[in-house]
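Ticket #4471: structure export looks truncated?
Reporter: QA, pipeline team
Priority: medium

Steps to reproduce: submit the single chain below to the structure queue and open the exported record.
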Amino acid sequence: MRIALISENSQAAKNSIVENALRKVVEPMGYEVRNYGMYSAQDEAQLTYVQNGILAATLLNSGACDFVVTGCGTGEGAMLACNSFPGVICGHVEDPLDAYTFAQINDGNAIALPFAKGFGWGGDLNLEYIFEKLFSEEFGGGYPKERVVPEQRNKKILDAVKLVTYRKMEDILPELDRDLVKGAFAGEHFQEYFFADAKDETLKNIVKEIIG
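Actual output as written to the record:
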């Protein structure tokens, strides 16, 4: 599994804290982490939570990553932005129980964390525990386990609904504000990671055209 980490401007100073907690948990599992920034509040490329959603959706729909970890001050804006796009099921996660039940019941591919609200003493430990429970088992196993059949059925229904209610990413990106999208792709390592990892050639070509 390849996991992308995306931070927005208001909480960019915590990027290294989140990255360290994430790597500590998932790298022993054999998972790979791609840190797309922001790396600090002083980064030249500044990401808003809306741009987090654009970037997350582009990465997931192109196959550049399998899962996205993102967030903002409360986590709400990042979650709403991610869920504005096709191919993304993003949960709002505040604690390890949220993480475990989201993974097992909702079988999503992104989480939005609150990096300001409630992030006090022990915040780094809470992140570790969240990632431990999030990735502790194969996704979609159900909770409680006797509910696995209807929960998996509901997930398939949701996936089918989203195919009807959302347009394709390759149709969306060219119609968004060009500067907004270019800003989402302006991170220091975006081109290095994205073009090496993305599998969808159509989206890769669209991103190349947007970047210019």
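Status: closed, not a bug. The export was complete when the record was re-opened. Leaving a note from the reviewer for reference: The radius of gyration is 16 Å.
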